[in-house]
Amino acid sequence: MMSLRWIAALTCFSSTAYSGPGPEDVDVLDRSIRIGSVAFPFHNAPDVRSLDLSSVDIFLECTGQPYTREFVSRALEAGARGVLISGPAESADITVVLGANEEIIGGSRIVSNASCTTNALAPLLKIIDEAYEVIGGQMTTVHCYTGSQPTVDQPRSDPARSRAAALSMVPTTTSAHKLVGKVLPHLAGKIEARAIRVPTASVSAIDLTVSLGIEPSLSDAREELKKRALASGVLGWTERPLVSVDMRARPESLVISGPEISVSPGGLLRVFGWYDNEYGFATRMLDVAKLLDDHSLANEGCSRILSQ
Length: 308
Description:
Layout: H1 4-12, E1 26-28, E2 32-35, E3 38-41, E4 58-61, H2 69-72, H3 74-77, E5 82-85, E6 94-95, E7 110-112, H4 116-132, E8 134-144, E9 170-172, H5 176-183, E10 191-198, E11 204-212, H6 218-232, E12 235-238, E13 254-257, E14 262-264, E15 268-275, H7 279-307
Parallel strand pairs: 4-5, 5-7, 6-7, 8-10, 12-13
Antiparallel strand pairs: 1-2, 2-3, 8-11, 9-10, 11-15, 13-15, 14-15
């Protein structure tokens, strides 16, 4: 997909993950990149089945190719114990969002980690639903532009997404509400969602309004959601008047802005939060990969016991 030289260069400098240079001690070797004292081997093959992946615990499928079952199973055929897909995939055994439904991972070998916005939305909906019962709601993600959008006007399948990404706010779609229905089945069909792509390169936001079965006071809502968010392991909380650039490289799936929470008569709750759609999601990929590996090892151990 790109040369080792370019991978090394983009490891040293990032326009979105950090300011200034990153790791300075990055060397390009024959078929690997060395960062500090650790060498990371690289392979280039049109079909992963031509590689020996028998020493690979979890294979991260991040190509963005159509995730057919045949395609994502190739890493298993090559010897990997499990596959984690960095996007929505009907072909996966299950879709897992940390902080929402990770308990279902079981013996699954092909897992989808959903999307960055779903990782932000699902844990938030879970803590709200557990506290106050979500009846229904509407979410808008104010999302930074991505590589799928052009830098100058160019034809795309969606006329709005054909426009220059850095020059306009672009109303468009998101699949996050549909994925929430997979992750939290009892909320399927209760949440609608839209997206607005905005001219920033990193960090996005969620603006969620939900109708509740139990109507809290404003102070109760802030106190209860803060407690549940900080106990979730993936949600953060801030009382400070921050802007998007302040949230770059935050590892949380979502950082809720306490002062932005409001409660309207009739049980309408509004919650606003920030998420680094690159860094935060990449962090969740590593977390879920570790979880998948732990379950894979446990199931492998059980198989050995049963076969003895």
